[in-house]
Write a structure and sequence with these properties.
six-stranded antiparallel barrel, mainly beta, single chain
Amino acid sequence: MYLKQTILACLLATLSQSALADQLKLQVGYPERHTVQKGDTLLDIAGQYLAETGLLHRLWNVNPQIANPHWSYPLLGKATEGGKQVVHLSPKSRVENKANPVPMLPLSEIGPFLQTDHILADNQQAKQLPYVLGNNEAHIGMLEGDTLYVQGSLTPGQDYGIYHPGVVYKDKQTGELLGQEAVFVGTARAEERLPNDRTRVTLSHNQREVYQGDKVIPLPPQETLSAVFTPKAAPVISPGYIVDLPSKARGGGKFDVVLINKGLRDQLAPGDVLEVRRPGATLVGKNGKVSYKEYSSVYNKAFYSTGKQPLPSEAVARVMLFKVYDKLSYGLIMQSQDMVSSGYQVSNF
């Protein structure tokens, strides 16, 4: 998916100032659109429009709200063009105090999480959801095109997601229930309400086999999905940690998704950016010698690991939150110097 920005409006607005109208001239045949590439700056883009590239800094001088023209901070937006979704960037400037620019966001990486992935607040919520009863062919695993019956009153004509209850997340220190993973397995369309609070549905798509007992949750309308994210420093929070990587990989890098143990109750919101820190290595000291705890014997770990402070933690990544629940949040790794794993700390930078 390409990020496209209409630059002409900004330049014409600048040229409308009489003091500069005679000094800044547009090139003949200037492009009406520019596809933003990694590494683009305001001056790079303006150079494609101005006839005299030596006057680029005058453009910056009449836009003092731009702290640094060498950095671009695009916003994600969703639109439809030629039957396909595209992302537009509005010609808007902002002052950023970050030490490093935030790179562009690949909407394709987080789209499935926005529309289908879900976290259940607790077991009680899961018990109250409609669930799959099965079908009259007695299939154990049901597939696309099958007619299913659901216990619960659904709205005919509406699409629903079907979910299998997954991992139960608990705080590793307090044991508090944070939420339960709902694994997306497919979509179904409600066809007809039946007696006894049941609904006949058609399984329209599935990623995995649908089983009896799988939960049924309404899918959010496409037009209600968040498509614009403004990266910003998160409010001050107590340090949290990465609970899980939805990919179930051992480590994640740039543009991978992580789940953290912070959410709405910590005043977090989509767009908030946090730092990810790798824990310092734990040391074992014996008779004046030092070794890493993970490579030490069981005996040395038990009797010689106390008293040695671990090495300092290191900042290895930054993550932007895009889907926030009460106690958990999904975030996208925006910058990464090294792989991140479950248990890594998240905090303000």
